[in-house]
Amino acid sequence: MSSSLQSTPNNPSHLSDLRDAAADARPTDLKKILRERQLARNRKACLPCRERKVRCNHQQPCQTCVKRGHADLCFYDQAPEPRSPRLIQLNQPATDLDHGNNNDTFSANPTSHDNRTSIPTPSLLGGNSIISVARLNSAQPQSDNERRAAFETGIFPLLGMNEASDSEQSPRPGRSDLKLADDQEMIALFSFYRDRVHPFQFVIDDLAEIEELVCSLVNRDTEVGQVDNHSLCLLHAILAAGAQFSDLNTAARVPKSREELQSALGLLGSFDLLWNPSKRLIQALLILGHVLQNDMNPRAAWILGGTTVRLALSIGLHQPATIPDTLRLMPGESQHLRLAIVWQDALLSLAFDRPPASQEMNLESDLPKIFPNALPSQVLNYQQAMNWLCHLTLRHLRNLSEGPWLEHCVLFFQDFRNLEASLAPHLEAHQSCTSIQELQEHYSLKLHRNFVLSTFCRPILSIKTRGSCSDEDYSRILGRFQTALKQSVRAFIKLRSMSSHATSSWAFVHNGLSSALLLSFIRQDSEADETRQIQAELMRTLTERSEEVGQFSTAHKKALRAMQALQRLAEQNASRVQPLGSSNERQSTSFPEGMDISFDPLNASQEQSMLSMDEWLRTFDFDAFSPLESYNFIMSDQVPPDTNF
Question: From which domain of life does this come (predicted)?
Fold first, then answer.
């Protein structure tokens, strides 16, 4: 009886075995498979076509997206994933998860395999932690596209999980919606950069390749969408710099330059520069730094310069030889970029009175040797002389805070003399210039080197430094300081007389104006007439075109107004002590009639602040403040009380 019962097909144990066998043969997720097949039969349009309400052929990518140039955005809604038991148990101990799931289950101790003997420990990465949610979202994309976009753009970069860091290490193609200037305008702006900017800002060592790209775009051999973002950014930066030094009037030049500047900065908005630095990107950032300076925004240029230095350090540019896992450049390319970075950072930090950031790239091995008695084949050209000047600037700025100031000043004078003794003839004397280019190089270097020299001598104006120097040292350094200031102002006046584009350079304007302002605060009766003549000539040069004065930065406008007020006060004091018959002798040193800067180009709200500065300077006590404190007050962002510059 028992045997017959065991052979009966209705035996429950036999039914259980059949069910187990059927379960083993069934797919693991039948609902998911059926859902996918149903979606395949009833597939909806892709998201871009649904958004634009256009026809979609349901391919991947669809023909419409390919035609419109955004095939990378063509994707479809996915079915919501079923909630996995793993999501519910993420807050359980890691050993329980290992016991109930496969080896790919997230675990706090993935090396433990014997789950029955391990000690349960609470997981520090529960289901609500950022890493757990981010990993799950990365593995199983949700149907909520906004949530996924938030993860990709906000959370993933913080965790180092952004796909951009793992993508192909080359600049991505440019966006097809970007547009360049028309052919004629692009050629004109590029020519202005090549002829007027590049000879004095040696950022690009392969300008011929950029010009070849311009020709290819003009001939339509290359479309804008085929050019990578870094090259497009560099091209827009070049066009912005060319617009600043173009022959357009101020009303057209400034908007055009800012339009190209905005386009260049827009190409950096994706933060591709953080994931994938390149030579073209560093070149673009350097030129953008110059453009921001000349747009009278040195603070933004200084901030951008710090980013440029960090990017250069990240690719090992401060190393003379290429190191593994960095951007591979030829030694000549790396050297050229280092020198360009040091050039910009040294002059901007010195003029803007901020600490430099490129000390690690200030390598003397990149520079040619200098000889006190240099042969004709050993003299320095303009580029080499400027590189040496910037190198000495960073070297002595680093040591300036260590030890007595007077000792560092003597060492700087010695290095400065060696540099001047190694200059090419046309850089040393204007009589040796045989071309317009050599003449511009002569006065440009003269302006920069005298400004650097005067800046290192400037602490002699402070009360603390004056007390630590002997009378002999004080007189010697003060005399050299005044001479450097006058030479700097005269060089700027000469550059301005040769070309109106000298006022388009923030560095030229700043060096000339700051030197003239410092001369106004140094009270030396024996040289007062010469100082007033230089200042009057400077004001006459600047006020020939008042619209250019309106484009100056606030600090430069304050300096102009301060010089006018100080000159007016000096004339009033001189008229009180001089006989009536001698007033005509001093008339040539005052500002010409009607040449007072009314600052009409400024905003109307600033006029009252300029009048307040006149009142402040009229009651200024030279005995209470040192000339250096007065200079720093005017050239800084601070304003007198109850004023709004």
Answer: Eukaryota
**Per-residue pLDDT reduced to its tens digit, 51-61:** 887 888 888 88
The verdict on residue 453 lying in a domain is no
- State the residue range of the domain holding 499: 487-578+587-635
| Whole-number Å distance between alpha carbons of 169 and 511 | 42
Q: Identify whether the C-beta of residue 174 lies closer than 8 Å to the C-beta of residue 236.
A: no
CA dihedral 613, 616, 620, 626 (to 10 degrees): -50
Task: Please identify, among 328, 354, 380, the residue that sits at the C-terminal boundary of a domain.
Answer: 354
CA 53, 55, 60: angle at the middle one, nearest 5? 110
In a domain? residue 607: yes
Q: What's the burial of 307, exposed, middle or buried (CB within 10 Å: 0-12/13-18/19+)?
A: middle
Q: How far is CA 379 from CA 372, 383, 413, 414, 452, in A?
A: 10, 12, 19, 18, 21
Examine the pLDDT at 616 and tell me if it is beyond 70.
Answer: no
pLDDT digits (tens, 9 = 90+) for 190-245: 999 999 999 999 999 999 999 999 999 999 888 888 888 889 999 999 999 999 99
The 8-class DSSP code of residue 430 comes to G
214 part of a folded domain: yes
Largest interatomic CA distance in the chain:
150
Q: Which of 202-211, 406-415, 566-575 has the highest mean pLDDT?
A: 202-211
Range among 95-104, 106-115, 515-524 with highest mean pLDDT value = 515-524
% of the chain surpassing 70 pLDDT: 64
pLDDT per residue as tens digits for the range 268-279: 865 566 778 889
Assess if residue 198 is contained within a domain.
yes
Asked if residue 82 has a cis previous peptide bond (ω within 30° of 0), the answer is: no
Can you tell me the distance from the alpha carbon of 634 to that of 559, in angstroms, rounded to the nearest whole number?
7
- CA angle at 196 for the pair 299 and 513, rounded to the nearest 5°: 45
Q: Who has greater pLDDT, 453 or 9?
A: 453
Distances (CA, A) of 132 to 90, 129, 475, 609: 9, 5, 71, 58
Position with higher pLDDT, 138 vs 568: 568
* Spatial CA neighbour of 492 closest among 510, 467, 517, 465: 510
Residue environment code for 185-224, b if the CB has 16+ CB neighbours within 10 A, otherwise e = ebebbbebbbebbbebbbbbbeeeebeebbeebbeeeeeb
Residues 305 and 180: their CA atoms lie apart, in Å, by 26
Q: Is pLDDT of 478 > 60?
A: yes
β-strand partners of 297: none
Q: What is the DSSP letter of 153?
A: I
Q: How many domains does the chain have?
A: 2
